[in-house]
Amino acid sequence: MKNYISAGTTLTITAAADITSGEGVLVGALFGVAVTDIATGEAGEIALTGVYDLPKAPSQAWTQGAKVYWDDTAKQCTTAATGNTLIGAATRAVGGGASETIGTVRLNGTA
């Protein structure tokens, strides 16, 4: 079909600040994970779908399948919806506490 553009699994963005490969990036209502390092003002790719280990609020315990949101101020995932952007769901349970700073998230790829 002549109107097809792409599968939509990645998006080219222009970095507003330096971004490290693997870092979560919120662009409007779209959330992705940086494929490579992207310097301020440069173009680079973010992945909009897939399963990733991402920083999480240490105080929270997650259940498998729980909705996960991005707190763009703290630059971490949370299960708190208020003021945050839905990015996907937890693929495994994880405990709360100071040592529990990473959660595994399946990105939903939607806005």
Structure, briefly:
Pfam families: Phage_cement_2 (PF09956). With 111 residues, this protein is an all-beta fold.
The termini sit apart by: 24 Å
Extract low-pLDDT stretches: none
Largest sheet: 5 strands, antiparallel
- Count of distinct structural domains: 1
Radius of gyration: 14 Å
Pfam family, one: Phage_cement_2
What does the model show?
- A hairpin with a 2-residue loop joins strand 2 (24-27) and strand 3.
- By secondary structure, this protein is mostly beta strands.
- The strands form two sheets. Strands 5-9-8-6-7 form a five-stranded antiparallel sheet, with no helix packed on it.
- It has strands spanning 10-14, 24-27, 30-34, 43-47, 49-55, 67-71, 76-78, 85-90, 102-108.
- The chain has no helices and nine strands.
- The mean pLDDT is 96.
- The protein has one domain (10-108).
- Pfam families: Phage_cement_2.
What are the key terms here?
single chain, mainly beta, 5-stranded antiparallel sheet, 4-stranded antiparallel sheet, about 0% helix, globular, Phage_VT1-Sakai_H0018
Itemize the secondary structure elements and their pairings.
Elements: E1 10-14, E2 24-27, E3 30-34, E4 43-47, E5 49-55, E6 67-71, E7 76-78, E8 85-90, E9 102-108
Antiparallel strand pairs: 1-4, 2-3, 3-4, 5-9, 6-7, 6-8, 8-9
